[in-house]
């Protein structure tokens, strides 16, 4: 992201709220740190007896006293870059976090039509960040599938012969993947634009895109859009047929609406491990051998989602870096290099550049769709055993986080 590059940072500092001392003292702690509880000591704030004292700059993190506010802003001094890289301790309300949260404030003001107090250049920057987040769904879907990834290549070759590609976006919502009721037609056009190269490369005359989830529009939404070549001449490369259907993904829902079998299934920020959701029926209704793509907002969520799929026996192989973490077999050759990997986990070079604040830990930030996990739905081959492997090299798509190299940022 451009802001991180300007701060000479490669990574987004995702989990920075200091919680260890509070959890040790009270494992059942339920307050939201920095919101209704002091971000330093955990004392309840926002009451007549204990008014909230916010950060003076971003005004998005609350404390019970000036002393706690100052303590949270004190960042430990590190002696060298190696020590900083290996440090696991949360940094609290550092200058970087404060700056990122000020951007969150700008974005929300513009999104809510309350930008009158902002300078024009800040308004334009916020609009660009908001738009980049919207387009991250289309950019991620099109570019990851079009990339040279083994788990999709065989399926795409088969679909090329058939002339049709069918994608199921599972757990979709009107306000997320479809940008809201007033913009769903523009979102459909954006999907057609993004998928045009995939249609042309794979010779798919038709791409059918099914958005399926309990937060989809109450009435079935359907749109047909021509996909145009992205080259110099504007020629039609195929047709996108988009459907949005409300309901929990299951065999019954597919049968009820006569939805064809998916060639590839996609999950945008599914929250597999969120206690309020139950994904078992949905995952069991997906045919074994179906490739999948899933995104998460943070690295920890991506790791947890992979572990969840493994626990349910719904992922055929584990990405090398995670396989080592889980002490499982990994698809690596003798030199420790990936060999035709059928699963992957990495940062997503096609995410947007809008940073959001976590709703329960005020110093934690995230970017939607920032991490991607892909593989094949099916049973893990435990007969392969456990093999010591080198971790996969993290994909650092610095150039892809510039507008010139990332359609999500345009």
UniProtKB/TrEMBL annotation:
Domain Mitochondrial splicing suppressor 51-like C-terminal: from-to ranges: 163-309
Stated name of the protein: Mitochondrial splicing suppressor 51-like C-terminal domain-containing protein
SUPFAM superfamilies for this protein: HIT/MYND zinc finger-like
Pfam families per the UniProt record, alphabetical: MSS51_C
Transmembrane segments: none
Cited InterPro entries: Mss51-like_C (IPR046824)
Species in which this protein is naturally found: Fistulifera solaris (Oleaginous diatom)
Coiled coil: none
């Amino acid at each position: 992201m451009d802001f991180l590059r300007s701060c000479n940072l490669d990574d987004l500092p995702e989990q920075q709220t200091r919680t260890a001392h509070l959890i040790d003292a009270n494992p059942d702690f339920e307050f939201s740190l920095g919101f209704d509880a002091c971000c330093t000591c955990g004392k309840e704030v926002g009451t007549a007896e204990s008014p909230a004292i916010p950060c003076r700059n971003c005004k998005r993190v609350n404390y019970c006293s000036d002393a706690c506010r100052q303590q949270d802003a004190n960042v430990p001094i590190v002696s060298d870059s190696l020590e900083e890289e290996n440090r696991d301790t949360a940094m609290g309300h550092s200058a970087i976090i404060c700056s990122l949260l000020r951007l969150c404030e700008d974005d929300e003001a513009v999104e809510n039509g309350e930008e009158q107090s902002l300078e024009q250049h800040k308004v334009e920057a916020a609009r660009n960040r908001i738009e980049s987040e919207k387009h991250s769904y289309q950019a991620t879907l099109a570019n990851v599938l079009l990339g040279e990834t083994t788990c999709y290549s065989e399926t795409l070759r088969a679909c090329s012969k058939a002339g049709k590609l069918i994608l199921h976006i599972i757990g979709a919502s009107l306000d997320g993947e479809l940008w809201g009721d007033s913009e769903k037609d523009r979102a459909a056009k954006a999907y057609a634009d993004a998928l045009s190269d995939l249609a042309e490369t794979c010779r798919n005359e038709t791409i059918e895109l099914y958005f399926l989830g309990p937060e989809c529009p109450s009435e079935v939404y359907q749109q047909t859009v021509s996909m145009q070549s992205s080259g110099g001449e504007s020629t039609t490369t195929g047709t996108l047929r988009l459907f949005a259907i409300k309901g929990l993904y299951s065999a019954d829902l597919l049968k009820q609406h006569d939805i064809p079998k998916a060639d590839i299934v996609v999950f945008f920020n599914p929250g597999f491990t969120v206690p309020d959701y139950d994904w078992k029926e949905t995952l069991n209704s997906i045919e074994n051998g179906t490739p999948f793509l899933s995104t998460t907002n943070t690295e920890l969520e991506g790791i947890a989602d992979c572990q969840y799929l493994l626990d349910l026996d719904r992922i055929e192989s584990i990405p090398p870096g995670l396989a080592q973490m889980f002490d499982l077999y990994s698809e690596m050759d003798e030199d420790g290099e990936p060999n035709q990997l059928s699963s992957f986990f990495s940062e997503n070079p096609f995410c947007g550049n809008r940073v959001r604040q976590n709703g329960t830990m005020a110093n934690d930030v995230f970017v939607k769709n920032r991490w991607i996990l892909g593989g094949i739905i099916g049973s893990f081959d435990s007969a392969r055993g456990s093999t010591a492997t080198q971790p996969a090299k993290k994909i650092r798509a610095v150039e892809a986080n510039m507008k010139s190299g990332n359609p999500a940022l345009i």
